[in-house]
Amino acid sequence: MGLLSKKDAQLITDPLADNNPITIQVLGICSALAITAELKASLVMAISVLFVLGLGNVVISLMRNIIPSKIRIIVQLIVVAALVIIVDLVLKAFAYELSKTLSVFVGLIITNCIIMGRFEAFALGNGPWKSFLDGIGNAVGYGVILIIVGFFRELFGSGTLFGIPVLGDPIAKTGLYAIGYENNGFMIMPPMALIVVGIIIWIQRTKNKALIED
Amino acid sequence: MGLKSNLHNIKEKYKGTKMAPAFNAIHTFLYLPNETTHNGTHIKAADDLKRTMNTVIMAMVPCLIFGMFNAGYQHNVAFGTGSVISGGLFSAEFWSLDNLLIGAWKIIPILVVSYGVGLLIEFIFAVIKKHEVEEGYLVTGMLVPLIVPVDIPLWMLAVAVAFGVVIGKEVFGGTGMNILNPALTIRAFLFFAYPTWMSGDKVWVEGAVKQDQLIAAGENLDAISGETILGSLAQNKEAGYDVMDMFFGFIPGSVGETSTLLILLGGLFLIFTKIGSWRIMLSSVIGALVMGLIFNGVVSSGWITESSKFYGLMSTEFWHHLLIGGFAFGTVFMATDPVTASQTNKGKWIYGFLIGFISILIRVFNPAYPEGVMLAILLMNVFAPTIDHYVVQGNVKQRMKRLKAKTA
Question: Would you call A161 helix, strand, or coil by DSSP?
Answer without folding.
Answer: strand
